[in-house]
Write a structure and sequence with these properties.
The protein is an alpha/beta fold and 623 residues long. The protein has 23 helices and 26 strands. The chain binds iron/sulfur cluster (SF4).
Length: 623
């Protein structure tokens, strides 16, 4: 690193940059949080954020940019062709396969070629780089999360060619503790690599910059070229107190949005952060591996920490007033029931028509879901992942398929959109698990469908750490990185998406009936519930001493049944999973045989789901 020789000027100027393919319809929480934090903590620092992704989205067209940013590899292919022109043919082939999967260029008036897309992106990126007076900055930080790797490499290289003396910091979820030194060795343009959360490492770099001692900063999550060697050290437990963080500063994003032509302008969402980490995944005092096996969303955090609900409500109110936006994007991986309860009660009291869509676990009760809905929740992102209890157990989910059906049912009844994925092709899957899944889908298909999501291996996940237990081997950076990056880089740094081998014959063939069933489920659900006024596919109406249950079929036919008083009472009792023994004790005057026969009839009529002696009524109430 060629630190500038001139005397340190104050305030220190830091530029914080976010590149494609960050989603364009929201400001970057990373930029907003870091700016607010370092300016508050360091009186002699001025931070400027640069949401370059937004302007590149405008240049490309928001619809196309949006589709590319949601595809796994397409965006990386475009910048790979710009950074490594000798790889552009291979990058184009990979892009076309993504286009085939995601229909990226859908709706374009002409068939834009891959080289044309690259040219547009290059022009927009170069023009943005050229529009900034970089010379006034003392340091530049680049946040790199999912799908921002190649765009960030392109930016850093262009900047270093023109301003070789400006130190560059990289940080974000792409960087893993214990592997940061490899990045310094592989990318001579990078001067600092930050692992873990960004606030206190960035502050320590800025403090070092203002004093300029001979050695680099000593923060355990800062890895510095000045140190001369680049060991892959694992770091200490140094995480900030989330309750002491200021609200993010999104001013620059909204100023840039103001320059977008009025025909293209849109209402973005406001990202807010109420917690970091997940209580199911992190416990620094536990030696046992915890958390959902496939999840790598918490490798940055060591502990679960959360703000107070009142603090979050205050922060949301402030952001709403400042930006006049009502769509709130709660970024927490996990929203605890207590937090959800108090937060949404507080949002309700604001008296504003907020639009929120939080992530919750499948255990979330109907009462909490109701609170979410009445506080402005339009839907919930639920961690369903599978409809086979054996598979859920191996995934470390600690719930059963019947519990997943319960939350799908409750969301349907409350009119909350239940957005959830089903993981296909999880390593070690068996025919029995696939059969169990298909059986469960045949009951679940009256609720909002699950999105098929083929399993991919994330670095830092439990399955990645404990490969033997899950029967995978040959773990390596994803093979697509070898297409996009030079061999020397693809083999030396740890990258978020991984490839692996398994002994199983063909997981794709095993799971293809489930994939087909999910597509069929989506088609039939959407065709029946095509308008907001369409009735639920399976609903009941309560007559007090009888119950009418209606089941709609895909061809428009419906079957209606009337349940007697005792069957009604039993049906209403099972609106949450109940074990047979519990049901028997509730109906002491009905013989076990009669109860068993009623439950059998309701189960074979697809009105009740049964699993290992537990029963769940599936119809939703319609008044
Ligand atoms: S999937 Fe959700 S609940 Fe599971 S470990 Fe990850 S963040 Fe926690």
């Amino acid at each position: 690193m060629n630190a500038r020789e001139t005397e340190t000027r104050f305030p220190l100027q830091v530029a914080l940059v976010s590149l494609p393919w960050q989603l364009y319809d929201r400001p970057s929480i990373q930029l907003g949080a870091l700016k607010a934090y370092v300016e508050r903590e360091h009186p002699r620092v001025a931070a400027t954020t640069h949401s370059f992704y937004l302007m590149i989205a405008e240049a490309l067209g928001f619809a196309l940019y949006g589709r590319i940013s949601l595809a796994r590899w397409a965006g990386e292919c475009i910048y790979a062709a710009l950074v490594y022109p000798d790889r552009s043919r291979a990058a184009e082939a990979l892009f076309e396969s993504e286009d085939h999967l995601h229909n990226l260029r859908r709706g374009l008036s002409h068939q834009t070629s891959f080289p044309d897309l690259c040219k547009t992106v290059q022009r927009a990126t170069d023009s943005l780089i050229g529009s900034v007076d970089w010379d006034r900055y003392d340091i530049v930080g680049v946040t790199i999360t999912f799908n921002q790797l190649l765009s960030s490499i392109y930016f850093i290289r262009q900047l270093k060619v023109r301003f070789p003396e400006i130190p560059i910091i990289v940080g974000g979820t792409t960087f893993f503790r214990g592997r940061a030194g490899d990045w310094l060795a592989a990318f001579p343009e990078v001067d600092f690599v930050v692992t873990g959360e960004g606030e206190s490492p960035l502050l320590s770099i800025l403090e070092w910059l203002s004093e300029r001692p001979n050695r680099g900063p000593t923060h355990p999550d800062v890895h510095c070229r000045l140190h001369g060697t680049f060991p892959n050290t694992t770091t200490a437990l140094k995480e900030c107190e989330i309750r002491a963080l200021p609200a993010p500063d999104y001013t620059e994003y909204f100023e840039r949005l103001g320059t977008v032509t009025s025909q293209q302008r849109f209402f973005p969402s406001l990202p807010v952060e109420g917690a970091r980490g997940c209580p199911y995944a992190s416990n620094v005092n536990s030696k046992k591996e915890r958390g959902c096996a496939f999840c790598n969303m918490n490798h940055q955090w060591l502990r679960y920490r959360k703000k107070k609900p009142d603090q979050m409500v205050g922060e949301i109110a402030k952001l709403i007033n400042r930006h006049q936006i009502l769509k709130i994007n709660i970024l927490d991986n996990y929203l605890s029931p207590t937090m959800a309860d108090k937060l949404f009660a507080g949002l309700r009291k604001l008296g504003k028509d907020v639009h929120v869509f939080p992530s919750v676990r499948a255990e979330t009760s109907k009462e909490v879901l109701y609170r979410i809905q009445s506080g402005g929740g339009k839907g919930v992102q639920v961690g369903i992942e599978a409809l086979s209890t054996a598979l859920l157990k191996r995934m470390g989910k600690k719930i059963k398929a019947i519990d997943n059906l319960r939350i799908m049912r409750d969301c349907e009844e409350l009119g909350l959109i239940c957005q959830a994925n089903m993981i296909l092709g999880f390593p070690g899957s068996t025919e029995t698990e696939v059969a169990e899944t298909l059986r469960c889908i045949s009951y679940a298909n009256v609720f909002r469908p699950l999105n098929p999501n083929w399993f991919w291996l994330g670095a830092g996940s439990r399955i990645w750490r404990d490969q033997d237990q899950f029967g995978i081997f040959g773990v390596r950076n994803h093979d697509n990185y070898r297409v996009l990056l030079p061999e020397s880089i693809a083999n030396s740094v740890l990258l978020p998406q991984q490839s692996y081998d398994v002994d199983e014959e063909d997981l794709e063939a095993l799971w293809s009936p489930v994939h087909k069933a999910l597509i069929q489920w989506t088609d039939s659900y959407n065709s029946i519930r095509s308008t907001p006024y369409s009735p639920p596919l399976l609903y009941y109406q309560d007559g007090g001493d009888f119950l009418i249950v209606t089941h709609l079929n895909v061809n428009g036919d419906s079957t209606t049944r009337r349940l007697s008083k005792s069957a009604r009472d039993l049906y209403l009792m099972c609106l949450r999973p109940r074990h047979l023994e519990e049901i028997e004790s509730e109906f002491p005057r009905v013989s076990r045989e009669v109860l068993a026969s009623t439950l059998r009839q309701l189960t074979s009529a697809m009105l009740i789901y049964e699993e290992e002696g537990f029963y769940l009524s599936l119809a939703v109430r319609r008044r």
